[in-house]
Fold this protein.
Amino acid sequence: MVDFIGNRAIYKLLNESLKKGTLAHAYIFTGPDGIGKKLLALHLAKSINCLSAKDGLSFCNKCVSCEKIESGSHPDVQLIKPDGKVFKIGQVREIIRDIYYLPFEGNKRVFILEDAHTMNEEAANSLLKTLEEPPASSMLILLTNNLYALLPTVRSGSQVLKFNPIPENEIERYLVEKQNVEPEKARKAAHLAEGSLGTAITFDDELFHEGQKWAVVVLQSMVSSDDSALFNQIKEAVKDEKKFEFYVKILVSLLRDLSIIGIFEDEKRILHKELLAELYDLRKRISEKEIQSIFSDIEDLYMKKTLNLKLDLVLQNIILKHRVQILREVI
Ligand SMILES: [Zn+2]
């Protein structure tokens, strides 16, 4: 069996449906990015079409059919992305036409649509009839990270399977055992990935170290009044939205470590072990109450992301506010 981690309930359900021959004709796989939706859709397509398949979700990954699916050249298994930012009506019409062809060489035609929520109403409506009366020789799998952006009629015409984030320890184990990632790095990658194996696998060591330094400076600036380089650094980080989000996650994980130091006094649980000296120093100067308060402000920062506010200014205000509070507490 090929690796698949997390979401056992969905895995089992599809496995049973394959065994009993009760697969739905249309599925929606929904959940955050990087948690295995596409992978499981491809596993399903391989299991259906593998030349030496046994029962259930099982395939050899060696036969011509498995190889063709893997390389994207199987005529009966199509992985379709939106052409540009959205699925256009023409693209969907083409899929609808193709869906009525009998399999060319496999057992069943499988159409996997990535980012299915990007279908506009016209495109989605044209798909509806096919969802209601699909040919038995084809199946549709819609992948999305935004279920409610799909038309309700599309949702109700398909079996919706909700994928959950993968538990941190499963991701960590996978990285160490299957990807030969060094254990400390695997711990960090798994923690910051928030349940997404895809994110954990593409963990960028260098960016992480930069983010660590950045987050330490932010926290240190709350306990001192030296701003010289800080606000420029914040401005710089905010320019790249993805990077900034990653940095803020690191900042949150540092706050978590600070809290652990205070409450458990247990270094084993600490994520940023290489920063112990800095963490202990910070912990001496920031109370638990204050840490919790910074936590909630940073969470608020995430919320404000959607409000189009200047995040560097918001973060600056958080720093200044807590600096005042911390200094007051010390006095
Ligand atoms: Zn095979």
Summary: The chain has a mean pLDDT of 89.
